[in-house]
């Protein structure tokens, strides 16, 4: 495997970094997350029309660029560096690949060009950790399993109807299209299916929730006999397997995003300790501070190596995500500590990075379950030994 980035890949990284450096500073991020959409719509228009980020990994036949997970991971490393609030993750990383892999020819032709152009945003309405197969075997039981809870699907007079609710749906309050995972068939033919629900569907109620990480807006989705369209030409698709495949790629992209955030938090901390003086000298000259920063540097670089490997081999995505989230949490925590009194104020940007680490751990983890599932898949422990280790 050649891990060297091509000139085109480096150009993607450079272009995204330069644009976000101009348009997405800490003040702009704080302003954007408090809008109704939860992100800067003008900046999103620029990212879609000029850079084509939503269609970066989509086939050219649907208006995409035709790149792969590596390019998308590089772009998201830069969006993570600035904590860009945008529908990119929900639309391009979660929803679009599911439409491409499970959708019928007419669904792909009708939806994917709109996604690639940025005209349509989409999201996945499901508990992300279990549904994407990141924290355990994906058997679809998280969708309801024929019991109360989750979302239930019924076929009434040839039309699918959904009933239930989903918490913590990324960009669920603003997405134009929802991919809702629902349980169908009861006990007789129990299965998990994916459905397309438009934002104006009768019976759909969307409520924006208060999130720990404001840069990832979340909503509660309530479906009260909402009309839906089955994703795919038939209802015999292996949806859990498709979700797990998308989850592996999403984990690699999320790992790269977390690495970008950790790298930026570390860089800002290094800048600060060079300027902050105590006892007549910069605090960065103290040996104890140097040791702490050196440990953080090693942690970030190790997480970057894991994230880049996962971008070429998504099977390693879960483990790379665990390492990247841990690196981001430790780096953001130390950034708050090393900034001293100013770092403990809510207004300081170090808190944005700490909240991103904690928020992603809640959405996609926790870290110890990501690692435990990776160990199970690799067969590192017997069942008893693994349970004791966890």
From TrEMBL:
Domain Acyl-CoA dehydrogenase/oxidase N-terminal: 6-118
Cofactors, names only: FAD
The Acyl-CoA dehydrogenase/oxidase C-terminal domain, residue ranges: 252-377
Listed Pfam families: Acyl-CoA_dh_1, Acyl-CoA_dh_N
Database matches in Gene3D superfamilies: Acyl-CoA dehydrogenase/oxidase, N-terminal domain, Butyryl-CoA Dehydrogenase, subunit A, domain 2, Butyryl-CoA Dehydrogenase, subunit A, domain 3
Transmembrane feature ranges: none
SUPFAM superfamilies, per the entry: Acyl-CoA dehydrogenase C-terminal domain-like, Acyl-CoA dehydrogenase NM domain-like
Presence of the UniProt keyword Repeat in the record: no
Keyword field: FAD, Flavoprotein, Oxidoreductase
Molecular-function annotations in GO: acyl-CoA dehydrogenase activity; flavin adenine dinucleotide binding
Similarity comment text for this entry: Belongs to the acyl-CoA dehydrogenase family.
Name listed for the protein in its UniProt record: Acyl-CoA/acyl-ACP dehydrogenase
Organism: Streptomyces beijiangensis
